[in-house]
Specification:
By secondary structure, this protein is of the alpha/beta class. 39% of the residues lie in helices and 17% in strands. It contains ten helices and twelve strands. The strands form four sheets. A six-stranded parallel beta sheet has the order 3-2-1-4-5-6, with helices on both faces. The chain has a two-stranded antiparallel ribbon with strand order 7-8.
Length: 266
């Protein structure tokens, strides 16, 4: 079939699905990461275009980067500033979807410890407790990615610290928070709005595992680190091929040893 025709059919199907989706209440939580503000603003615009109600919450650091006026111009229906008191349980009960475009390493650490000592962490953990879908851009909290780059992180330096920060992300995935690469964020958000759910806790950041002709597992998720979750489905003693430059977290190294995996860097 002609590709242009296929694209037109897909476009028509998506348009029909959008028309059938009821308006939803979406909570957008901005913490202090330098990554994710642009895609976060685009998410607000997406909510406005499709008739969903967007409530934006700023941390003290976030409000220094995006102003209340900019958020309103993008289409935010409600804005909660750091100085405002809010009934967090009531807000959590009302929302259908929670977005965290600017997850920072600091916020990830608080969440991994289960701390509800800030408005942002309380809303995220409360939403997870309530079974609400929570989607976060992981790039700003990735010490091997943008989160480390903003501090000038160098390869081979502070590996134990980086692995600890990565373990925080693994914990969040185990809690049910969906960690997503920034380029995939808007498409994933729209999929949730259309009713396509995640495959399970942390599934958005899970690797694509493909068998080679010799039935050798391949991990090719495009990530800069390999986590324990990437390895748990692999048969013991199998050969694991990973992208050059990828790093293993401490838990992943232990799991690879326990499974007696033959690790080969491509």
């Amino acid at each position: 079939m002609d590709r242009a025709l296929i694209a037109e059919i897909v476009k028509q199907i998506i348009t029909e699905l959008r028309a059938k989706v009821p308006a939803q209440r979406v909570l957008l939580l901005f913490s202090g990461a330098s990554t994710g503000f642009v895609v976060g603003m685009e998410a607000i615009k997406l909510m406005a275009r499709q008739g969903h109600r967007a409530t934006v919450v700023f941390s003290p650091a976030a409000v220094q980067i995006i102003t209340e006026q900019q958020a309103r111009q993008a289409g935010a229906a409600d804005i909660i500033l750091p100085s405002q008191w809010i009934d967090t349980p009531s807000l959590v009960h009302e929302v259908d979807l929670v977005l965290v475009p600017t997850l920072s390493m600091n916020t990830a650490a608080r969440l991994a410890m289960g701390l509800m000592d800030t408005l942002i962490s309380t809303l995220i953990l409360g939403s997870l407790l309530a079974g609400k879908p929570v989607l976060a851009v992981k790039d700003g909290a990735d010490p091997y990615g943008n989160g480390g780059l903003v501090f000038g992180a160098k390869p081979g330096v502070a590996t134990a610290l980086k692995d600890k920060l990565v373990q925080n992300l693994e914990t969040l995935a185990a809690f049910g928070l969906e960690l997503i690469d920034e380029p995939d964020y808007l498409a994933t958000v729209e999929a949730r709005l259309l009713g396509f759910g995640a495959l399970g806790p942390g599934s958005a950041s899970a690797p694509v595992v493909l068998p080679s002709p010799a039935a050798t597992p391949v991990v090719s998720n495009g990530a800069t680190f390999i986590t324990q979750a990437d390895l748990l489905t692999l048969p013991p003693g199998s050969t694991l091929r990973v992208p050059a430059g990828a790093r293993f977290t401490a838990l992943a190294r232990e799991t690879a040893a326990q499974l007696k995996l033959d690790v080969a860097f491509e």
